Amino acid sequence: RSSDLTEPRIVHPKTDEQRCRLQDACKDILLFKNLDQEQLSQVLDAMFECKVIPQEHVIDQGDDGDNFYVIERGQYDIFVKKEGDARCVGRYDNRGSFGELALMYNTPRAATIVATTEGALWGLDRITFRRLILKNNAKKRKMYEQFIESVPVLKSLELSERMKIVDVIGERTYQDTERIITQGEKADCFFIVESGEVKIMMKSKTKAGQENNQEVEIARCASGQYFGELALVTNKPRAASAYAVGSVKCLVMDVQAFERLLGPCMDIMKRNITHYEEQLVAMFGSSMDLKDPGN
């Protein structure tokens, strides 16, 4: 049946000023990256503004999912209850989105989100979310399914877990020599190379190299390989920079999805980090960089 015709389009009128703020809040939301112009326009039409006050619960673990939320401003703590004990497992700081899991998989809310400051959110109702985003995700699954199956580090995941990865990744393209991540900066994403090649560069540790601000190539990543995990695993700033070699396509996952979905891959990643450290000792005579990447 053609659900597009039977389900009325939901539109919340907005002023130009609201529309501008909404577009700005949504520009980096990975779930929206694969929508075409018309679909995105329908999503933005359907979104509505919510103001929150400190200590307000935006969603509660165990509830049914009603809306997906994009953060415009404010800080929000993420609490997960295990054996009756609620633990703060993370925080959103003036950016990001949450609430998609319950809508995608028809499951209860997996966490409680509490505003710790005054803030503003944009909500998207369940019906529009499922009609536009999920439909799009089915196309996306077809596109990326085979590729995700072939990524070595994800082999230890169940099929259903790999499918969840397909649902949360976005695709980004980079031109030759474009910098993808920057040494010393705060990390918020994990990358898998889809096509092309990425070189990983680290600031030189030799005196002359430091004076000239030189970078040394320490690794190359080709299709199916990943980078950007180090800072997420160690909770430190980026230990190296990454640059596109020729034109490059990467699949990108934000830090929240990385922590939620890649738990089973952590052992492999940690083993690889030990391997990086051995490489650095061989190159620089020290592995200081990984512990203190700002240098």
Helix content: 25-40%
Q: What is the SS-derived class?
A: alpha+beta
How much beta, percentage-wise? 25-35%
Order of helices and strands: HHHEEEEEEHEEHHEEEHEEHEHHH
Q: What is the tally of helical segments?
A: 11
Tally the beta strands: 14
Described by strand count, sense and barrel closure, the largest sheet is: 6 strands, antiparallel
What would the average pLDDT be, to the nearest integer?
A: 86
Give the N-terminus to C-terminus distance in angstroms: 60 Å
Give the CA-based shape.
globular
The unreliable regions are none
C-alpha-based Rg, rounded: 21 Å
What does this structure look like?
This protein is α+β, with helices and mostly antiparallel strands and 295 residues long. Helix content is 36%, strand content 31%. The protein has 11 helices and 14 strands. Strands 9, 10, 11, 12, 13 and 14 form a 6-stranded antiparallel sheet that branches. It has a 4-stranded antiparallel sheet with strand order 1-8-3-6. A 4-stranded antiparallel sheet has the order 2-7-4-5, with no helix packed on it. Strand 4 and strand 5 form a beta hairpin. Helix 5 crosses helix 6. The longest helix is centred in the middle third of the chain and has 24 residues. The model has no long low-confidence stretch (mean pLDDT 86).
Quickly describe the structure.
The chain is α+β, with helices and mostly antiparallel strands and 295 residues long. Helix content is 36%, strand content 31%.
